[in-house]
Amino acid sequence: MQNSTTIGFIGAGNMAYALISGLVDSDFSTKNIKVSDTDKALLSLRKEEFNLEIFTDNAALATKCDVIVLAVKPQVLSLVCNDLKDNLKSGSLIVSIAAGVRSHDIDRWLGLNKAIVRTMPNTPALLGKGVTGMFANENTSDEQKSLAEKILKSVSHCLWVEDENMLDAVTALSGSGPAYLFLMMESMAKAGVALGLDEDTAQTLSIQTALGASMMADQSVDSLHELRAKVTSPNGTTQAAIESFQDQNFETMVAHAMRAAFDRAKEIGSELADE
Fold it and tell me: Looking at the DSSP assignment, which residues form a beta bridge with residue 158?
């Protein structure tokens, strides 16, 4: 990505902060990063943190940027796009991180035939450890796809999908996934307390176990199934716990939960399309 590319963020919240931090850490010049938001206090904070040019007028920002990152709540995206549609630079790239809003609706709100990359990052991007599903519409060139990937890659691992509908599956797995793992960690810690551990010890054991297991999975050539088998000794303590999980249909519970998230993602997309 060339430092001459100007990137504008509509929305100055946590995910915008993460992406700006990632770009800065990748030696992208802050002179070519601009931010717009209705929250003047938040804008002032971003200016203080990064020495960025800030705007309260989305249209004014759009006229100066080659890439627009839509980092606002899905419910206000149609209004934001209406502000932008007559003020975008020719050939500009739109990158959306708004959950659930389909690319063809964004394109319709912007006036049609725009290059749009829709993304689904997750919250570990705030630590530079996220994972992002990405989809590009037919108006997006390979060069623009590469540009969008470099932006998201500054804070996350990136995976492309060919079918936009699969972003709903990405949402169900990785977008909502951190909450599933937090629930598992919370439940393990509570169970540890019930077995006699003090709360701080139980929470530390739960968090560090999840962290270590994730690192092992990331660095191992073994599949997740193989890794689980290797730490499950026959007739041992782990096997007893795994069998208890399976007796209570743990895999089915996870599948049903993810299906519920998947179905809700589709519903949200349909609801917002009517705006």
Answer: 132
Nearest Cα residue to 37 out of 21, 64, 60, 18: 60
Q: Is the dihedral of CA 109, 39, 17, 165 positive or negative?
A: negative
Q: What is the pLDDT of residues 67-96, one digit of tens each?
A: 999 999 988 999 999 999 999 999 999 999
| CA dist., res. 275 & res. 268, Å (int) | 11
CATH numbers and ranges of domains, the chain = 7-165 (3.40.50.720), 177-267 (1.10.3730.10)
Amino acid present at 151? I
If pLDDT is split at 50, 70 and 90, which confidence band does 270 have?
A: confident
pLDDT 10s digits, 117-130: 999 999 999 999 99
**Residue entry with tokens 């739960």:** 206
CA distance 205 to 211: 10
Contacts of 227 (CB under 8 A, 6+ apart): 216, 217, 220
CB 273 within 8 A of CB 188: no
pTM of the model: 0.90
How far does Cα 130 stand from its chain's mean position? 7
Please count the other Cβ atoms lying within 10 Å of the Cβ belonging to residue 42: 17
Reported residue count of the chain is 275
Handedness of CA 152, 156, 157, 158 (dihedral sign): negative
Q: Angle at the Cα of 122 (from 157 to 155), degrees rounded to 5? A: 40
